[in-house]
Amino acid sequence: SSELTQPPSVSVSPGQTARITCSGDGLPKKFAFWYQQKSGQAPVLVIYEDYKRPSGIPERFSGSSSGTVATLTISGARVEDEADYYCYSTDNSGDNRGVFGGGTKLTVL
Amino acid sequence: EVQLVQSGAEVKKPGESLKISCKAFGYNFTTYWIGWVRQMPGKGLEWMGMIYPGDSDTRYSPSFQGQVTISADKSINSASLQWSSLKASDTAIYYCARLPFVVVVAGTQYYFDYWGQGTLVTVSS
């Protein structure tokens, strides 16, 4: 299966650790990527190749992957981290078609 | 600096045709795939398809195959997304984004790094 499953919502208080999971049968052989989308804005890549952080992304964002589950962790979440988060990987078609998870709304309050 | 600049918002009637564009700056346009992503109102991101401007090789999601056409013009560093007959259900924001690749056990894997600002397409009678 090429589907990626995320929880619809996660809620934490400021300063707490937020963890967002992404489940998919293909993840043991493929990387997971994570995008942050704030209201009214284009998505931004926050984690690539399971755990790498692009330049300019704060260190509180980290990623991991084990078996069929990838996890985005935001340590010491801030109010400005409130956004929709999408995991992404590719399918098994051989044509590199992309697949997004359904998205997780992170509330920090 | 890598930038993708998309064309402006469009308001169309059902049955009309439309072509929106995405102009690339700051990198070699012909050596990266470029893709399109749909976001319907209040919904998540959907992968539509991608094109390699170097040779116009194109891949589509089964959900969008036959519904849209993706093209690229390397002479002007621009990719396009086109509809021949719009439906109300095409109302959405459409993003273009660049696709670098990584090598994995199963081959290569493409992902989006730089994104355009999005183009809002509204189809209403």
What does it look like?
The complex is a heterodimer of chains A (109) and B (125). Helix content of chain A is 0%, strand content 43%. Chain A is mostly beta strands and 109 residues long. In chain A, the strands form 2 sheets. In chain A, strands 1, 3, 4, 7, 8 and 9 form a 6-stranded mixed beta sheet that branches. In chain A, strands 2-6-5 form a 3-stranded antiparallel beta sheet, with no helix packed on it. Chain A is globular. The model of chain A has no long low-confidence stretch (mean pLDDT 95). Chain B has 125 residues and is mostly beta strands. Chain B contains no helices and 12 strands. In chain B, a hairpin with a 4-residue loop joins strand 5 and strand 6. The termini of chain B are far apart. The model of chain B has no long low-confidence stretch (mean pLDDT 96). Chains A and B meet through strand 3, strand 7 and strand 8 of A and strand 5, strand 10 and strand 11 of B.
Descriptive key words:
heterodimer; A: 109 residues; mainly beta; six-stranded mixed beta sheet; three-stranded antiparallel beta sheet; 43% strand; B: 125 residues; four-stranded antiparallel beta sheet; 53% strand; globular
Give the amount of beta strand of chain A, in percent: 35-45%
Q: What is the general shape of chain B?
A: globular
Please identify the structural class of chain A as seen in this structure: mainly beta
Query: Helix share of residues of chain A?
Result: under 10%
Instruction: State the separation between the terminal residues of chain B, measured CA to CA.
Output: 40 Å
Topology:
The complex is a heterodimer of chains A (109) and B (125).
Chain A: E1 9-12, E2 18-23, E3 33-37, E4 44-47, E5 61-66, E6 69-74, E7 83-90, E8 98-100, E9 104-108
Parallel strand pairs in A: 1-9
Antiparallel strand pairs in A: 2-6, 3-4, 3-7, 5-6, 7-8, 7-9
Chain B: E1 3-6, E2 10-12, E3 18-25, E4 33-39, E5 45-52, E6 57-60, E7 69-73, E8 78-83, E9 92-99, E10 101-104, E11 107-110, E12 119-123
Parallel strand pairs in B: 2-12
Antiparallel strand pairs in B: 1-3, 3-8, 4-5, 4-9, 5-6, 7-8, 9-12, 10-11
